[in-house]
Amino acid sequence: MSIPIADRVREIPRSGIRDFFEVVQSMGDVISLGIGEPDFVTPWHIREAAIYALEKGRTGYTSNLGLPRLRATISDYVNENFAVRYEPENEILVSVGVSEAIDIALRALLNPGDEVIYHEPCYVSYAPSIALAGGVARAITTRAEDRFILRAVDVEGAITSRTKALMLNFPTNPTGATMPPDELEKIAALCVKHNLVVLSDEIYSELTYDGLSHPSLAALPGMKERTVLLHGVSKAFAMTGWRIGFACAPPELIDAMMKIHQYAILCAPIMSQEAAIEALSHGRPAMEKMRSAYEMRRNYIVSGLHALGLDGFKPQGAFYVFPKITKTGLTSREFSHRLLLEKKVAVVPGTAFGPSGEGHVRCSYATGLEQIKIAVTRIGEFCEEIAADGSAAAA
Ligand code: PLP
């Protein structure tokens, strides 16, 4: 029998990253600049909090919204770091990673045909999540020449009578772009003018460099009442496997999201929630060490790639660099596949992050400096060999 898969699911492509990494895993002995996850293990004091919770027998369900103590901790953390206060009782929902929060926020908001504007290149899940929620994804292309900034004028140009929401992600995966405060203010004013809800994915907000601080959209005038602030512990605290994210939003939206969450998920795992309390209350020193290691690696990889003539702007956030590879004459996919096969270095084709990623590859520097050094050397050899092949063919 052929199983009648729903059209909306059949039409969605599989993640380009996952497919690529199945190839990487089958090869072994590869230096990976591919995966978007910290190479650090979760700091010990955070792991210990979860172990302690297990020892105390804390193994049951929690409130659907998440442990009250975790919600109170999130409220304080967000107030301290984002300068906006949310009520633990009805404005915060603990989710299974930011991934789940994105999904349930979209499902809670969208009627069939509602449009959501987002900037591209972007995290792989945005367009599929919008489509799965019945919405229509409207991408705005951002460019390396403009430091991948989302311009308010482009947002305004993309708004139609069906636009319901805007999705933002700064610092951005895969470009490492950050948002200048004045442009963010213009976008906020547009959202107020056109009555848009904003899903603001700020999962990399702690990971900024060059002394830059992260302005949260939710803190701008008129924004708290229309913003879903999405954040979690996966990236900054090296806790991808714990699966804890959270959404801060107006009570009626949290209530709607909670209805989906309680039937689909019930609650995030209790021991992970205990670990997240520890991370958000006492994790800053360990997080700061990881952040400064990323900054050092960013400096190395950016100057290494520039020296090879692979241009790109210098990212100031997250742990990705998104160099242009057009001078090699290869497409992003060809570049990534050949680099993997010929030099055993894994990078992700830019097109995994939308069609506007063509001409780029994503290199993650959440990998040890020694590995990064070898990878840059190998990328250099690869580019030289491609150039030599090109000149031989031309001769
Ligand atoms: N949002 C962005 C921009 C990401 O890059 C990722 C993971 O790579 C996620 C969300 C998913 O995060 P989580 O592990 O909290 O589900």
Written description of the protein model:
The structure is a single chain. The chain has 395 residues and is α/β, with parallel strands linked by helices. It has two domains: 7-42 and 285-394, Aspartate Aminotransferase, domain 1, CATH 3.90.1150; 58-283, Type I PLP-dependent aspartate aminotransferase-like (Major domain) (Aspartate Aminotransferase, domain 2, 3-Layer(aba) Sandwich). The chain is built from 13 helices and twelve strands. The strands form three sheets. It has a seven-stranded mixed β-sheet, sandwiched between helices. Strands 9-12-11 form a three-stranded antiparallel β-sheet. Strands 1-10 form a two-stranded parallel ribbon. Helix 5 packs across helix 6, helix 5 (97-109) crosses helix 9 (251-264) and helix 11 (284-307) runs parallel beside helix 13 (369-394). The longest helix is centred in the C-terminal third of the chain and has 26 residues, at 369-394. The mean pLDDT is 95. Bound molecules: pyridoxal-5'-phosphate. Pyridoxal-5'-phosphate is lined by residues 36, 97-99, 123, 169, 173, 201, 203, 232, 234, 240, 245.
Using brief descriptors, characterize the structure shown.
globular, 13% strand, binds pyridoxal-5'-phosphate, 44% helix, Aspartate Aminotransferase, domain 1, Aspartate Aminotransferase, domain 2, alpha/beta, 395 residues, 13 helices, 7-stranded mixed β-sheet
